[in-house]
Amino acid sequence: MTATTPASLEPALLEVRGLGVDFTAPDGSPVHGVRGVDLTLRRGETVAVVGESGSGKSTTALALMRMLPGNGRIVSGSVRLDRTDLTTLGEDELRTVRGARIGMIFQDPMTSLNPVLTIGRQLDEVLRAHAREHDAGHRDRRARRRRAQELLELVGIPDPARRLDDHPHQFSGGQRQRILIAMALANEPDVLIADEPTTALDATVQEQILQLLAELNEKTGTALLLITHNLGVVARSCDRVLVMYGGTVVEDGATADVLGSPRHPYSAGLLAAVPRLSSPSGTRLYGIPGSPPDLSLPVVGCAFAARCPSADAECGTVPPPLVADGGAADVRRVACHHPGGSGVTEVPRRVPSEVPVGAARTDTVDGGAPLLEATGLRKEFGRRARGGRRDPLVAVDGVDLRLDAGETLGIVGESGSGKSTLARILVHAHPADAGVLKLRGSDVTRPSRAALRALRQEVQMVFQDPYASLNPRMTAGRIIAEPLLARGGFEDRAARRRRVGELLTQVGLDPSAADRRPRAFSGGQRQRIGIARALAPEPSVLVCDEPVAALDVSVQAQIINLLTDLQRELGLALVFIAHDLAVVRQVSHRIAVMRHGRFVETGRADDLCDSPREPYTRALLAAAPEPVRVPAAA
Amino acid sequence: MTSTVSSAPAVRRGTAARHPYLAALTTTRARIGLVLVGAVVLAGLLAPLLSSHAPTAQSGRALVPPGTGGHLLGTDDLGRDLLSRLLYGIRTDLEVIALAVPIGALLGCAFALLAAVHPVLDTVVQRAFDLVLAFPGLILALAVTAILGPGRLPVIVVITLAEIPVFGRQLRAGILVQRERDYAVAARVGGTRRARLLIRHILPNCADPLVVQLAVSLTVAVFLEGAMSFLGVGVRPPEPTLGNSLSQALPYLSQAPYFAAGPLLIVTLLVLGLSLLSEALNRETRR
Amino acid sequence: MGRYLLKRIPSALVVLVIASVVVFGILRLVPGDAATALAGPDASEESVAAIRRQLGLDQALAVQYVHWIGDLLRGDLGPSYAVGGEVADLIGEGFGATVELTLGALLLTIAIGLALGVLGATSRRRSVRGVVQALTTGALAVPPFVTGVLLVLVLAVGFAVLPSGGRVGLFEAPDLELQYLLLPALCLALPSAAVVGRYLKDSLQQAFSEDYIRTATAAGVSRRRLLWRHALPNALPPVVTLIGMQTGQLLGGAVLVEAIFAWPGLGQLAETGLTARDYPVVQDLLLLLVTVFVLVQLLTDVVHAWLDPRIRWE
User: Fold this and answer.
1) Smallest Cβ distance to B1: which of A519, A520, A565?
2) For A594-618, what is each residue's pLDDT tens digit?
3) Which of A136, A537, C132, C231 is a good FRET partner for A215, with 20 to 30 A between their CA atoms?
4) Size of the A and B interface in Cβ pairs below 8 Å
5) Angle (CA) A245 A248 A253, round 5°
6) Separation of alpha carbons A39 and A61, rounded Å
7) Does the predicted model carry a pTM greater than 0.90?
8) Do B115 and B172 touch, CB atoms closer than 8 A?
């Protein structure tokens, strides 16, 4: 890259060359987390590193700060900050870099602040840590407090003077991320590394944080290295982007170029897999087949070869170097033997589904009672406020809904909107405190034992977290067989085994998977097992609570497609709950927007997205970042 | 099926279904522990074969130093063979502990399961645990002995009583955490009944800390037996235990240190072995 | 904070009330009552009955219980049956000695436990961590009666640097008393110190793996401040609860240690009282110990809440 760098560009502030990081697995074998990563960051620039989990993007960020966990170490390459190689610095010299020249913020604002210290104390600690290198001003406690107050003001915390004495749990998630940004910027670093800074936040808050980062970048001239899996975020806020896969950089270039016309098949696939808000209901998503590579095994050739539509024999044996692509004046590099080759353009970007989903619903509406109907559902959780007064949290507050056979109802809401509680009421995991729930016209709000058994067969659930929702002590086969046993009729072991095999095949897994425990599967595979379990009692309603929120984009598409296919084949009615409006629009016939335990707006999916009536719906729509739209230079 | 069929499940290397307990037992730490505990247990089991004298027979030659007159470890103040008293002492200890700790653990777990059934029962069981815990262990021992009189029974009762709340609280805490986990909710939604959910789904996931606790409790039991015998409220002499052998040796410490050496060494080795085992299990299961 | 304390008090009271009933009941379960014990082996039926009447033992159990609690609340502990003298004086004497021993052991527990925990969790030297590990395992592996015997053997008999037993009284000769106290307190403290140390080590290691430590590290906070200002305040609250539980262990263990070191505390009084079936002495003594334990728990909860702002505001 140095050879092709136009002379007009300023020298690099942070320059990473050939960075390699190894981890030691519990059994002692090495895992090559990052291999030969090159990265250049100039003063005031914003660069994104995108990739899915396991791509090595976060490891790269941690390695820059020499903050790898105990089992990881840098095995090759250099990290130069203004010509100082950080990989060779001692602990004390490193300390003068961390927080002073490079600031860092992390993914989860809920756990990244010290719960027992006040915000003021934590900001003070950061200022104090670099008081010596700094001007004398920071040695004085009162001066530091003034500075802390300024910082809170800078990141938009109201009433900063008073709030300095509050503890983290007294702030919302978005505010905590603001405080963390304030801490990272406290000593005016040249570089700010943000590792998935908005992933744990709601869409509307995410938008605010991105805006704040952009403003600060402009105001303070701090270069920003943004690590994210979200292409929408990249498009919204970065000049350049690096795409990582399997521990290496596969593509590198200006954001507009990479997102506009990806040259690497993985970048292209990733872009195609992102659900877009602009796509109408019923659009089929493109999923990259297969799952990410196992980095504990040696990677021969291109890491993406196994999933690549245009891979040939060479891809399987020779690792492609990251080289300049085309003769463009702008720097654009791709690590692919067939960049932009035929395979990539053939990626099916949008396949309209065979059955127009909008039509299906109108037929069933006239046909008698709805499959599932709820009126005035309410659920409170006992909670105590300061001083022991009762202050119940109303999670679901008077929800009415109806669901017809074969229909998908999407429910969108941010965290705390009560959507998960609603899901659990619908499947009778929690009883409702008030309201009526009817299944095929009969009241099942407070079912008898027998009615509950019948109900358990009709209404099933798919959970958000494929790790937590499978019992780690049971094999996949036993997990799926459990509802069969409860239902009866499968006392015969062989019959049960056969049925489990059928279910596994139905969700796209091999029947031999029955003998393995959950930890042997990837996230997407586990979610398939969860779906197989839900299908076991042959339900007519499937309540999916954020079924893809914990999955990578390329896998997410596989699961969503599986769900819509199953719906068509089995005539299932789906309640599809998610925080991502784009996903919900594509799978749903109707959408309900949920906030503070209530439906604020319901309507046909396309109508609601194209012409929202409520301001909150509009805010949600505006906050969803689109990966194709590239912002004009500010 | 039109959706893409994912490639063969990615079975990770090294995780090939080896149970964490087995993995724990193959660590160096655990191996040393197993050897120590095994040796002591074996010595106790084979006591009749390994000793040439009856543990209570008095030879008339008191405080003979080791190696004289066919007494490998010497004799005590009453002229009894120290080796056979040591071996039979191990045997008594093992019998008491092997009975009391499992009973305590089982009862504790039973109470915890009972507490999981209904909130009212939970409160009752909780307060009962608090109550037992409020009596310092050895005070409890004194009180129980006052009722039952000295002997094996009070030792067993005291150890059992002391272990019930320990296991009970641990399991209760585990159940409370586990039953809110998604997999438990999923099983409930799938139609699994309450008893089955508790026993087959939740209990196995609470087992790890209990197994570690079992090893810890065995060491505590060795302590308790020893302490009770030492205070003269445990197993009645002349029947030997590790504890009463030690307390018997105390007055002769400067005069005949070999008197105390045997029981001292055995108690330490046994407890050390159990501690190493519990540590190894703890490390492996917390991974 | 005050409200938090108020919330804890009812359940503590419940435990105390039940404990008093249990204490009272246990003694009535002991075969043969105080009267038979007092009257001696050859006493006639009538004289036993007379003693029984005199002590009020012929009344219904409920009445006896109410009398006992009523007197207690008025601060009247009454005379002992068998040991001789006023119960209040007997308990007063031993209580001072036991509290002194327990407090000494508690201080040692905290000091040794903190040292073991902090070194074990943060030392960068493998050898230091190894030694800490060995010391912890060793202290856990050796029962207090064995430690006691060994300490006496080495320090009192072998080198004769410390007295092997007895007590002179803290106020009479403080410097000498500390010498007498050191061995029994150390012997009592070692297992608890090991438990505390091990738990603190785990707790600190847990804290060091948390995101907020990563935040502070990324901000350039020094290692030492990371430990003392960031990790320790988080690791400490559960350790405080543990120390509270260990105080109970120390109180109980004191009985044993008192026997080894001829320390004139409550343990000896409890033993004599029980064998003589001296109801008033044993009842009051047991209830006192339980009360102390419950108070320590309450105190622990308050300290815990003070250390952890999340609980304070609940």
Assistant:
1) A565
2) 999 999 999 999 999 989 999 999 9
3) A136
4) 125
5) 85
6) 11
7) no
8) yes
